[in-house]
Each structure stands twice: as structure tokens, then as C-alpha cells.
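Hi support team,

I've been running sequence recovery on a batch of backbones for a student project. Most finish fine, but this one hangs at about 90% for roughly twenty minutes before it completes. I'm not sure whether the input is malformed or the queue is just slow. I've pasted the C-alpha cells below so you can try to reproduce it. Let me know if you need the job ID as well.

Thanks,
M.K.
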């Protein structure tokens, strides 16, 4: 009973955390529909359908010539090179669909297990001992008056990095903030796609895909991990702190399977709407929960909705985090599949595959690699990734090189974490000096390196009575469906 209660509380929060997404995705859908690649993808050789059409699930994908969307009829023509023989039929990847994950989040790693693929990586903490009571409320911006956040604020102030003195935006995006949107010195990605030289928005090498999944870990992440493992693919997971405390075993599973773990804030807000202190709280707690689960602190982060400006960038940099978004090659071609909105009924799975076709069409024409926005939060997003998008990408000729962002940038995996970062090849994680170190250690004294050795769990040893609560969170995937 206790297990079911925890799961029932956690799930609605996933949806409410994304309630502001409509505006963002209205733009994304329109962008994809008018993408320059639409013409070329619709003219793709029909022969590519033949091989896939004999496979279960592929016929519906290949035959998706017309798929009326929620906002009106949209003519879709696309082909897939290949689909997964066990793909869920597209007609069943819809809003409200629900079934049991085929791979439960059952893998737990003993405290002290050490990842051998990262030189000098610290041992895994005991995830079962995490005490949720020691962390902020799920899916809300954490209290900025807490001692931890106050310490992180001091560290940012002492970092030597200048935080631009510009006001937060108000909710409502570009239309609600005409002055900010027009202010090029703010470099607000949301309104016009402005990027800073430090932003990671693509992979350098042509035909290279920096594979990313956002908003997890969640119920169906295990299914995605199993597919990635079977296909020998590694990805970057942008982790929401509120999900990490709910599914620590899955986060460990991602990390131990050699995927890159990165920060995606605590509660998934539009970061430009927050005060400096709130931004620090969002990033600081996300770094802390990841370190408490994995023993390492990410050096990369992704702003939810790509909502970043120079103020948010500077704070993230002062906290040792490299801003990473996704590829946008023109005002009408952003590499967002739109997969997040299937669950909410705002887009059909056929439209997502049409977006994917546009993306892949553009990806073959640009002279650099690319990064695509996808999610592991919902069953629908995982089903469409494992059933259609990834098999299609893997069958593409010429082949794509598919790898985590850190790898596509030509850096070793140890550069993805403050505790193992090679200073010489990845200065971003250490260049901010004391701020990065202090925030990495979650307020503990000592350098980032020593914090990694000591482990941050000492302050978070859970009383035995709360061990059951932690176990319930870890076991949530199975419990929900029992
Ligand atoms: Zn997100």
C-alpha cells in the first residue's frame, strides 16, 4: 500500500511540471512542419518503405500519409528505413496509453561499486540510504533561504564570474516580454535562437548525432536502457532532480551502463523567469542529488525548453555547468521531435515521425553534426524512440555516428563530471574554480576532488525507518502496476 501511494503521488507531478510547455511546442510544431527538409523527405525514395513494411508496426509508420492532428488536418508523408520488429504499433502510441514497462527498475548496485570505465571515478554511494526528507519538495523551485542554497549563492558570488544585471522574464515567453526578446545583448535562446560561443548546440563532425534524453529517470527509462544496450548505443541523459530522488536505482543504472549523466534542473522551470537565487537553487540541488546517487557531479546541463539567456548562462558557468541545448539551423528548423507532447494529446506519433524525417533530412545536408530533443519521461516517448526513431537512424545510409554529447565533442567521459574531469581537455568544469568546487561538494568543505573521495553521503545517512521510503521510491515502477 505504501508503494502504491508513493507512485500515485509522483506521477501527476510529472505532468504539472510541464504545464507551461504549450507555447513552446506550438512553435516547435510549426517549425517542423515548415522545415526546409519537408520537401526532400516527402520526396524520399519509396523503396525505403519496402524493407520496413514487412515488419510489424512498420506498415503503419510507412503508411502515415495523412494524420489529422489536434490542431487540424496535416498531410504527412514520410518513410522509415527500418523499424523495430517488436515496436508498439503507432496507432497505440497515443495520449493516455498505458501498459506495464517491460523492463522494471530492479537493478541496484551495492554501495561501494566503482565504475571502471571512468578513470579515478569514486565508488557509488548507497542509493537506498537517501532520505527524501533531506531534499526539496518535488517539482517546485527549492527554498532559497536554506543553508545549502545560501552556501551555493556565496560560492557563485565568489566565482569571479560576472552575472549580467538583467531582470528575469515574465511567464509567457516572447510575446509577454517584447523588450527582452528584442534585446540582443540578453541573447535569449527562446526568442530567436541566440547562442553563446560556449553553448553546445551541435556536434562538430558531420553525420554525428549527440543522442540525448531529457526529464527522466522515469518509469519507462528501463525499457530505453535495454534497447540502447541491445544496440550498443550510449546517450546523454539530462536528469531532473525531482526524478532522480524518485528513481535513484535507474539513475545508477544509466551511469553504470556508460551513459553520460547531466543536469536538467530540480523542478523543470523556465529558467529565465527565475531570480538569480532561484536559478542557483535549481542547479545546486540537481547537482547535489546526482552526486548523492552517483558520487559524481555533472559538468553539463540543459535548460528546460531551451530557456536560457546570458544571466542564466553566467550562473550556470559559475556553478561549473556547460550549457547544452539542441540544434537549430534556422527559425523554421529546430531539431525537436515534439515527442513530449504525445502523452498530452497535443501531437500525434505520426507527426513526431514526420518531424523526425525533417530532422534527419536536415541532418544529412548540414556540414556539422547535430543534437535532437527527445525524452525518456513517458511511455510514448520511449516507445517511439525504441520502435521507430532509433531503428530508422541505425539503418540510415550513409550511417550516423551516434554517441553522447561529451563523446561527440571529442572529450573523454571523465570530463563529464567535476570529480573526474581532466582539467587540460575540459576547462569548463573546473575553470570557475572555487564556485564549481564548493557547489560540487554540496556545501561540504574541501575541493571537488576530495569531495569525490569523501562522498557526500555522510550528511545524508538515512535513519532506518526511512530506508523503506527510499526503497519504495526505487521500486516505484513495479509497485505502480501491482
Ligand atoms: Zn525537459
Amino acid at each position: 500500500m505504501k508503494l502504491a501511494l508513493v507512485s500515485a503521488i509522483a506521477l501527476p507531478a510529472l505532468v504539472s511540471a510541464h504545464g507551461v510547455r504549450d507555447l513552446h511546442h506550438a512553435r516547435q510544431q510549426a517549425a517542423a512542419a515548415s522545415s526546409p527538409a519537408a520537401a526532400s523527405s516527402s520526396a524520399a525514395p519509396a523503396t525505403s518503405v519496402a524493407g520496413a513494411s514487412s515488419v510489424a508496426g512498420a506498415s503503419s509508420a510507412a503508411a502515415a500519409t495523412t494524420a489529422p492532428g489536434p490542431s487540424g488536418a496535416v498531410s504527412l508523408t514520410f518513410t522509415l528505413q527500418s523499424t523495430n520488429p517488436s515496436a508498439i504499433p503507432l496507432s497505440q502510441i497515443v495520449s493516455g496509453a498505458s501498459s506495464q514497462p517491460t523492463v522494471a527498475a530492479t537493478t541496484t548496485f551495492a554501495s561501494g561499486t566503482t565504475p571502471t570505465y571512468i578513470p579515478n571515478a569514486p565508488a557509488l554511494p548507497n542509493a537506498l540510504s537517501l532520505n527524501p526528507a533531506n531534499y526539496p519538495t518535488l517539482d517546485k523551485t527549492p527554498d532559497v533561504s536554506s543553508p545549502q542554497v545560501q552556501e551555493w549563492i556565496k560560492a557563485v558570488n565568489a566565482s569571479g564570474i560576472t552575472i549580467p544585471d538583467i531582470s528575469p522574464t515574465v511567464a509567457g515567453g516572447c510575446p509577454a516580454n517584447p523588450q527582452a526578446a528584442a534585446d540582443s545583448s540578453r541573447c535569449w535562446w527562446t526568442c530567436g535562437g541566440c547562442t553563446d560561443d560556449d553553448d553546445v548546440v551541435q556536434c562538430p563532425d558531420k553525420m554525428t548525432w549527440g543522442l540525448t534524453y531529457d526529464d527522466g529517470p522515469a518509469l519507462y527509462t528501463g525499457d530505453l536502457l535495454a534497447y540502447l544496450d541491445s544496440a550498443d548505443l550510449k546517450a546523454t541523459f539530462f536528469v531532473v532532480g525531482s526524478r532522480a530522488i524518485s528513481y535513484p536505482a535507474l539513475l545508477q543504472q544509466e551511469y553504470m551502463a556508460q551513459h553520460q549523466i547531466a543536469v536538467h534542473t530540480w523542478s523543470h522551470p523556465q529558467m529565465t523567469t527565475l531570480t538569480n537565487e532561484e536559478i542557483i537553487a535549481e542547479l545546486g540541488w540537481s547537482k547535489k542529488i546526482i552526486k548523492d546517487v552517483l558520487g559524481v557531479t555533472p559538468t553539463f546541463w540543459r535548460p528546460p525548453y531551451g530557456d536560457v539567456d546570458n544571466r542564466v548562462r553566467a550562473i550556470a558557468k559559475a556553478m561549473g555547468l556547460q550549457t547544452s541545448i539542441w540544434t537549430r539551423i534556422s527559425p523554421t528548423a529546430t531539431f525537436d521531435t515534439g515527442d513530449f507532447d504525445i502523452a498530452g494529446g497535443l501531437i500525434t506519433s505520426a507527426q513526431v515521425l514526420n518531424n523526425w524525417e525533417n530532422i534527419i533530412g536536415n541532418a544529412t545536408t548540414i556540414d556539422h553534426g547535430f543534437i535532437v530533443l527527445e525524452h525518456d519521461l513517458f511511455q510514448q516517448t520511449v516507445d517511439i524512440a525504441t520502435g521507430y526513431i532509433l531503428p530508422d537512424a541505425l539503418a540510415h545510409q550513409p550511417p550516423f555516428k551516434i554517441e553522447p554529447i561529451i563523446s561527440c565533442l571529442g572529450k573523454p567521459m571523465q570530463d563529464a563530471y567535476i570529480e573526474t574531469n581532466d582539467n587540460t581537455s575540459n576547462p569548463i568544469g573546473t575553470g570557475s574554480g572555487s564556485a564549481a568546487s564548493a557547489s560540487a561538494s554540496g556545501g561540504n568543505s574541501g575541493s571537488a576532488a576530495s569531495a569525490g573521495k569523501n562522498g557526500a553521503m555522510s550528511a545524508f545517512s538515512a535513519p532506518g525507518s526511512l530506508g523503506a521510503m527510499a526503497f519504495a521510491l526505487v521500486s516505484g515502477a513495479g509497485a505502480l502496476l501491482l
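--
Follow-up from support: It reproduced on our side and the slowdown came from queue contention, not your input. The chain has 20 helices and ten strands. No action needed from you.
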